[in-house]
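Dear support,

I submitted the protein below through the web form. The confirmation email said the job was done, but the results page showed an empty box. After a refresh the structure appeared. I'm attaching both so you can tell me whether what I see now is the final result or a partial one.
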Amino acid sequence: MPQNTLPTVWLDISDFLEYARGGNITVSGIQRVTANLVTLRGQSKYNVTPVVAKDDDAVLYAANIELFQKLVDGLQSGRHDSKHIQKLEKKVRKNLAPARTSAGDIFVIAGAFWAYQDFQFLKDLRERGLKIGVLIHDLIPIRNLQYVAPALTRSFEDAFLDVLSEVTLVLTISNYVRDDLKDYMQGRLGLDIPVETITEPTELPAVSYTYENIRDEVKAAAKQDYVLFVSTIEVRKNHTLLMKAWERLRLDRNLNVPNLVFVGKWGWGSEKIREYLDKTGGVGKWIFLLSSLSDEELSYLYRHCVMTSFPSLAEGWGLPVGESLAHGKMCIASNATSIPEVGGDLVDYIDPYNVDRACETFRSFFRDHDRIRQREKDIRENFRVKTWDAYCKEFYKNIDQHIEDKNALSREGNYVYSPGEIYFYGSDDVSEQNEKGGLLVTARMTRVSGWNRLEKWGCWAANNRAVIDLPTSLPAGRKVRVFIRVKAPVSQERMWLSCQAGGEDFAYGNVSPVAAFINFDGVIGQDGNLRVVLNSTGVPAPDSSYPTVHVGISAIGFVPADDAAACLGFLEKVLNETPKTLGDAIGTMPRGQASATGPGMGSPFLSRLLLGKAENPKPILGTVEKMSDRLSLFRARRSARKQKWGEAEKYYAAMLRRYINRPRILVQYGHMLKEQGFYAPAAEAYRQAAKIDPSDKEIRKHLAAVEHMVNN
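What the results page shows now:
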């Protein structure tokens, strides 16, 4: 492929190909957007090339435009079976070729961005100077949790956080989604990214149907008057409201109540809908269920219906409302979220939670069909169809302007990381942090190189040198203390780790399979970034997913090295973070009076550790750090045996600053504190050791004994 002379719009088609591979024979709402953006790509000033991105590959792969257009046309037509569509999709994949991207290009995701499992490729693209745009259809998986499967919420939010860390332009399909997104970004992420709205088209397929290919079951549903509801059959769409309203309306013998026709596939949370359908006994009598309709059959149902309804509880847009108006049919719709943006003054709205009011609204029209005809007349005279041509022109105008924006664009991500906070890598931690409220900024996209794919708990390094970059607001040269939660897989082989963060190398030694925080000194770089390099030996992977893995990470944070109060506060957070794999075994243990130390001081354990005597009195110079650590621990023990408490505390403090999660050192430190009569901080030391290793009965015995002393 020749080198680009003008910027290129690289349009992601990954989820479109997956959709075709899955055996679908017509386009859905999201896929229809991608299809038309490709077909009408000439609306951009620049070359628009469909590409596929791969989770574990920094290279984009360009599709042959002629082959992909054939696939688009095949799905758009709805006239082919799944085998034909899948054959076209295979041909597109077979002819993918590496794309030569350039700084100044833009990569655009208009489809289901959450289909990706890892977004490291976005970070790579931005670091190479590409801009990144994304189209957001709605925030329902994270704003309306009751309407979606929990697994979707987790995968969507993880993906959303990763995308927002790298994206440079966000487009939305309604003003409601725009405002909701801005609120989410500012309130939960502290981000301010440009957001523009491009409302969706209402244009119908330009086809004159003969209606000769309508199946008998569709004709049967349309034999009598009916109200049409086109939507996935799931709890969010609120089919139950219509069924409840219809049960009441049908009791009025003086009212001619049309049937209900539901068109759509079964979706998540549909069990209660099925139960209610069985309870009504109306299926096949006054309720008809249809799915997998052709465009011709759907047009047939719109043409013959009395009216449509769309009582959805939450939407990003509300396409069926626009389709109803485009067919010249009145619609009674929900007044929730974005739906009024679609229908404006041409739709009658109901409260989707109020069955009584819904009944009265439908009853008023069923009693006076002249009102329905007047509504249809208003629609014919005043409704303005938005075409796909107009939509694509507006879409590419925003993309082109963003390409041409000459404002300096950092090649770093959007997040700025603050001292004193713990940032997580794994989705399990993200979910827990979300429940706590506050800013929801993750470290997932701080991985630069040398990492495997993200997992629920965190991430394994892929080779012996793995790099992390945290953009900060601290000045260059500022010394910091870096905290990282690390672990090794359970293995007979030892994993050895050393770290570097702009300061001196820190030789940590062997890594435990129990996740624990380590800390070492670092320095902020000239660009304001904190670059962390982890060097570790490889051991066999725990589940054979990789031949070998290197050090695993699940959390990271940092504090200014010269701010003792900040270090104290951060260590308090570290001690409250229990590795997930250990469960809640320690959570029910009595705490006694161990933490009652007065405002602003944290626990007495941390106060002694950090503010008491925190410097090693005789640092060992000129020897490897690993040997130095062993010698420091030996001297701490010897000083404690001789009851030289001040000297012993200095050694233990120096060790625990670096190895805060080493149970052996914590237990020894607890013994020393207990012998001096400092029972409360001794209890804290034992408790932290027990939190790390809850199976150690000896630690529990020491903890129980000292807590008894505290309480008595």
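Response: this is the final, complete result; the empty box was a page-load delay. The chain has four domains: 8-197, 216-385, 421-579, 621-711.
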